[in-house]
Design a protein that fits this description.
There is one protein chain. By secondary structure, the protein is mostly beta strands. Strands 1, 2, 3, 4, 7 and 8 form a 6-stranded antiparallel beta sheet that branches. Strands 5-6 form a two-stranded antiparallel sheet. The radius of gyration is 13 Å and the shape is globular. The N and C termini lie far apart (35 Å).
Length: 100
């Protein structure tokens, strides 16, 4: 049986990273320009749920992290962003990013 949780890390030849945390049909993205960067996190401009709602993500080491539901995207958008990063080695321009 496939887990509802996933943690995916991709790295470009130039040292940029894209991380996806997935819980079922939702996912959250983080883009880092270099190691140690505070980076960027995804935002969902179409989110219309409770402002304080959170989603639990389980990391590969078993740690549980909570992030705002308004940061989560449909998993098909997350996969599209991962595919773009694999191909272009750049921050996916179609994701709404917030500089952290």
């Amino acid at each position: 049986m496939e887990s509802q949780y996933d943690e995916i890390w991709l790295q470009s030849p130039e040292g940029q990273s894209l991380c996806a945390l997935i819980n079922g049909d939702r996912g959250w993205l983080m883009f880092l320009r270099e190691e140690g960067d505070s980076g960027f996190s995804s935002r969902n401009p179409d989110y219309d749920g409770p402002p304080d709602a959170e989603i639990t993500y389980v990391l590969s080491n078993g740690q549980h992290d909570l992030y705002p539901a308004s940061w989560a995207l449909p998993v098909n958008e997350v996969k599209k962003a991962l595919d773009y990063f694999k191909r272009e080695h750049k921050q996916p321009p179609f994701v709404v990013w917030h500089e952290d």
